[in-house]
Fold this sequence. Notes:
Distance between the termini: 63 Å
Bound molecules: iron/sulfur cluster
Radius of gyration: 23 Å
Mean pLDDT: 95
Helix content: 10-25%
Low-confidence stretches: none
CATH architecture of the largest domain: 2-Layer Sandwich
Number of helices: 7
Order of helices and strands: EHEEHEEHEEHHHEHEEEEEEEE
Number of strands: 16
Largest sheet: 4 strands, antiparallel
CATH class of the largest domain: Alpha Beta
Strand content: 25-35%
Number of domains: 2
Strand order of the largest sheet: 12-11-14-15
Amino acid sequence: MRYGIAVxxxxxxxxxxxxxxxxxEHCGFAGKYSAAQPMMGQFWINIVERxxxxxxxxxxxETIPLLCSHCxxxxxxKASRDGxxxxxxxxxxxxDPEKSKGQSAIVEACPTGAVFWNEELEIPQKCTxxxxxxxxxxxxxxxxxxxxxxxxxxxACPNRALIFGDLDDxxxxxxxxxxxxxxxxxxxxEGQKTNVVHLNIPTVFLAGTVYRPVAEEEVAIxxxxxxxxxxxEEVWETxxxxxxxxxxxxxxxxxxxxxxxxxxxFETVNLSAVTDTDHYVAQTYLEAK
Length: 289
Ligand code: SF4
Ligand code: SF4
């Protein structure tokens, strides 16, 4: 049994339900696995929002729920002394609220900033994956079926952006969920095995708009747009929408990309761009053949 949470960033709509129930569960409650979470200044699950795009023509916001990744080989554990950080048999990484007193090195060691310092108690604190709740026989009796047990954030997510389960069970929902997405490690955890797995973190997008010839004053709906990376030999294909807009998300970073736009009855247009950052590439006007 290895408990995990899969986080599909593409499904997160920044409603903060997970954040709110985390506060409800842990503020004012001290237990075996943590002291009470302070109401202010700690975000055991946080929704990081970042504006993307390089012009007023195409901007969007990415939202990434961030929490402790419950690493297999945790940097926080290595930085701790006297057993202050340990892993349960089910893989949940715990900071002991008593043994960790004074150990601020645990905060600094985490590469994703998932640990917070409690000034008043002088202890580091973070997500416990609601271990206390998962172990609680009353909670299990209330659920009636052990398969229904899950941390509060997972239970609260209205968009199924968070899925909990047993990573050791190949048939578990969490493993099916992970298999259907694109696993993207958090910055600082590349190459690490973690029990919280992030999916579909955006990389770079390219976008544009295609118009019919100027005199027609109309956008081109359904124009075919093909992006090619000569370096990685990948190809992405899309079509312009009702507004003549196209967009391709999830491109590899810092690669030259060739763009080909075709539309029946019009000359092919070739453009190029580099995925150093998100770009609105161009407004393209077609010419009749
Ligand atoms: S994400 Fe940070 S706090 Fe969580 S287990 Fe890994 S190193 Fe420790
Ligand atoms: S509850 Fe789900 S959708 Fe809402 S912010 Fe959290 S992860 Fe995103």
